[in-house]
Amino acid sequence: MYAIEVDRLSKHYNGLVAVDDISFQVPEGSIFGFLGPNGAGKTTTINILCTIVKPTSGNAKVNGFDCLKEPDRVRQSIGIVFQDTTLDKDLTAYENLLYHAILYNVSRRVRRQKVEDALRFVDLFDRRDDFVRRFSGGMKRRLEVARAIVHQPKVLFLDEPTIGLDPQSRKSLWDFIIRLPEEQGVTVFMTTHYMDEAEVCHSIAIIDKGKIIAAGSPAELKKQVGGDVIYLKTTDNQESIRLIRNHKGFDAELKDDEIFVPVTKGDACIPELIKLLGDRVTSVRMQRPTLNDVFIKLTGKKIREEVQDSSDQLREAIRAYRRRFDRG
Ligand SMILES: Nc1ncnc2c1ncn2[C@@H]1O[C@H](COP(=O)(O)OP(=O)(O)O)[C@@H](O)[C@H]1O
Ligand SMILES: [Mg+2]
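Above: query sequence and magnesium ion SMILES. Below: predicted holo structure tokens.
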């Protein structure tokens, strides 16, 4: 049985194709990762599945309910954690969840219990009477997960749940997410642009510019890269890439300042590459393929590039603002 079925879904915004003819299924009780850089179409897809946005064409079903024809039944059967936080900072953790339980018609008889169970699940029971305004970013995210499961949905949508969190909080949030299918009986649909996080998903789809460019389990996708990946730094990248490409059985591509060489057996190939390039080589490292390598191989770019760019832009904007402010 599938918790989510998407068939040839598209969404156009005045000429811009945000989602471009995508199809996929998510089996019940699994964790599905929807991976892609900023602007790939992840949030738009979630919004369609949650019945917030209407597709331009195609079909989608959630828990067997048609997103276009039965939006109310879809909504009753799902939980959502939006990309931007939507907690009420002036209420306590407990109040935020209670308010939500009332909105979702959780019966008065079990309401308190459900709220307390959800708070315990994310380890925030002891902080239930604190105002959300005092919570750290990681705690807020956990509270949002708790809120999204209070009414016992069958599918939980998490849109970039770990964005902006420090590595430790990301890890701790993940520890709760991976327990959701078994302990809460929900299917998890989550988006992220952190490729490494998706390793724990049962299946993933990689989306770029509105199109799904690969899908499968993390292991299946990594197999597509081949064996290992060797990264080389050299004094002359252009000449080195030419030499590697001319060498039988090798391919090479420049990624940032490193040459990326997918090979079957890394340890055997390193001596061969060094012999080929001589003292042009300034550093060598080998990696088992990661989901990041899958993305690089499929698109020719790193998934974090855009993110880096936008944080650089943000820093520049803040600097410009400060300069103006200082001048008075
Ligand atoms: N309401 C909207 N109107 C116009 N364009 C939109 C709207 N929502 C999203 N887009 C565009 O659709 C594309 C996909 O956006 P989105 O789904 O938010 O991507 P992601 O969540 O992967 O970062 C982007 O180019 C974005 O600017
Ligand atoms: Mg988004």
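DSSP finds twelve helices and 14 strands in the chain.
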